[in-house]
Specification:
The chain has 186 residues and is α+β, with helices and mostly antiparallel strands. It has 3 helices and 8 strands; from the N terminus they run αββαββββββα. The N terminus is likely disordered.
């Protein structure tokens, strides 16, 4: 137990904190891994929605994601193909997934895997706004088709989701920054 706490402390020092506080919980029940993440920050719903649905650009700011692209568009939303990896020290898991995404503008985005390295994978982002702040929540479950060590698996999941969710929030905040108005030359 002390080693796991020390490892978590070292990893938290190795990854800088995000602009907003991000809370992530991960658990395991048999083969099923579950994760919940949330953050609250100053932003507008449109700004958050734009980043969440910018599927073709996600790999530019999400750690561990090498590729993300829309391969098809349907009435409810796109089919998105993503490739990347989850890492923890010497462990690395290649991840490829094809997601069917349903969009409910400015409220939620629901996805489920239809191909890739998961026997089952589903998740949902939920957006709520109040007084100029946005609360972003994510909840998902996954059953990988590769071996995930029992004790370290939830730690790998939590740390990777923490980094990725934090990067998503940071991008929302970055895109929302308004440049200072130019001062007239004197």
């Amino acid at each position: 137990m002390a080693r796991a706490l020390l490892l978590a402390l070292v990893l938290n020092l190795a990854f800088p904190s995000q602009a907003a506080d991000v809370s992530v919980r991960a658990s395991r029940n048999g083969d099923v891994l579950s994760v919940e993440a949330s953050a609250e920050f100053e932003a507008g719903l449109e700004q958050a929605w734009q980043v969440l649905t910018d599927y073709d650009q996600l790999a530019e700011f999400i750690p561990g994601m090498r590729e993300s692209r829309v391969i098809e568009r349907g009435a409810r939303g796109p089919v998105v193909e993503q490739k990347g990896e989850a890492r923890l020290l010497f462990l690395s898991y290649a991840i490829e997934v094809r997601l069917v995404v349903e969009e409910y503008p400015y409220e939620r985005i629901v996805s489920r895997a239809v191909a890739g390295h998961f026997r089952q994978m589903s998740g949902a982002y939920v957006l709520e706004a109040a007084a100029g702040r946005v609360r972003l929540r994510y909840a998902g479950t996954l059953v990988p088709d590769f071996y995930v060590p029992p004790l370290i698996g939830t730690l790998v999941l939590r740390l990777n989701v923490e980094r990725q969710f934090g990067a998503l929030v940071d991008e929302i905040l970055r895109r929302g920054q308004v440049p200072a108005p130019a001062r007239p030359a004197s």
